[in-house]
Amino acid sequence: MAEAYIVGAVRTPVGKKKGGLSTVHPTDLAAHTLKALIDRTGVDPAAVEDVIMGCVMQFGPQSMDIARNAWLSAGLPETTAGVTIDRQCGSSQQAVHFAAQGVLSGTQDLVVAAGVESMSIVPMGASITAALEKGMPFPFGDLWGERYGKQEISQFRGAELMCQKWGLTREELERFALESHQRAAKAVANGYFRDQIAPVNGVEDDEGPRPDTTLEKMAELKTLKEDGRITAATSSQISDGSGAVLIASERAVREHGLTPRARIHQLALMGDDPVYMLTAPIPATRKALDKAGMSIDDIDVVEINEAFAPVPLAWIKELGADPARVNPNGGAIALGHPLGATGAILMTKLLHELERTGGRYGLQTMCEGGGQANVTVIERL
Q: What is the pLDDT of residues 63-87, one digit of tens each?
């Protein structure tokens, strides 16, 4: 059976809104990561057949197929194609899936899976706002309303609905958020991320972690919704960043003298209730583990995106996962969530953490707009 190997993974630091990466054009941000990936793997860039790049707000500076433009901006060969995809927050995790599937099918040998998002330059919802200004009923039309009714569909409502369904208190959410910051601050201080980061614009470390935050400070914040439980402290940060992963076939490994670092072990995708929106990682993980013949106890490291604290907390409860193995170096609450880049960034973190700790299996998942989730299981080699 064909195999798909990860032979390289690199990311930028994740920058805060209006932070050190906020003035870097998103095409240049992605180009920097692509160039670093090629340099670090030593692969002939002309052998790369496609660049599949996740980007959610494909608007303004992030429009016009940023995957292709970033590759060219990096000074890399014109012969390599590029395509930009949108599966909401899971866009660059889906890029990893598409790249792996191209290799597993035998039709491709070297594919880059990447992601980019500059939320400082192209704000979340920019394309929706532009459509609304023109009077368009975007993004949901009459047929959607017939199926789901005229109700609020948003990630913020979904997070509150999850708190209600799983009985999560504001204190539980804030304790989780505090630990995310503490884990991330420890990882930065100990240099756990150093080898995976390609510094940009003088920024060498992730800008999001707040080592001095406390439960008392969090308790002072207003909830995002009246009578709600979610605050800014228990939500992912608005961020800028990019990540890239190189997927290779066995033939490419031999011909280019590459070193496989991990094997794509299982890929799964699933949808769930689009009103709750954020719950799909739970059934998708069960599906992936079932397909792989594995249990959650077989997984050494988990990276689940902390879009909001209830997402990983409900996932841990439902899967019976060991919290110590979940986001061991903090997550998006502390480190940030640059939308279309997060999938590739999490995969880079997952691979490096398995290598640092000697773990064998890693699992990545994240909630996505529309009530979807990707799950990727990798095996360190």
A: 999 999 999 999 999 999 999 999 9
Is 89 among the residues known to form the active site?
A: yes
- The number of C-alpha atoms within 13 Å of 243 and in the hemisphere containing its C-beta is 31
Q: pLDDT of 250-270, one tens digit each?
A: 999 999 999 999 999 999 999
pLDDT digits (tens, 9 = 90+) for 104-128: 999 999 999 999 999 999 999 887 8
Q: Is 352 an annotated catalytic residue? A: no
Q: Which of 32, 181, 352, 367 is catalytic?
A: 367
Catalytic annotation, pick one of 32, 265, 337, 352 = 337
Q: Which of 367, 344, 337, 284 is nearest to 6 (CA)?
A: 344
In a domain, 304, yes or no: yes
Among the listed residues 32, 89, 181, 352, the single catalytic one is 89
CATH of the domain at 317: 3.40.47.10
Tally of domains within the chain: 1
pTM: 0.97
Catalytic residue list contains 337: yes
What is the C-alpha separation between 264 and 251, in angstroms, rounded? 16
What is the residue range of 340's domain? 264-380
In a domain, 365, yes or no: yes
The single-letter DSSP state of residue 330 is: -
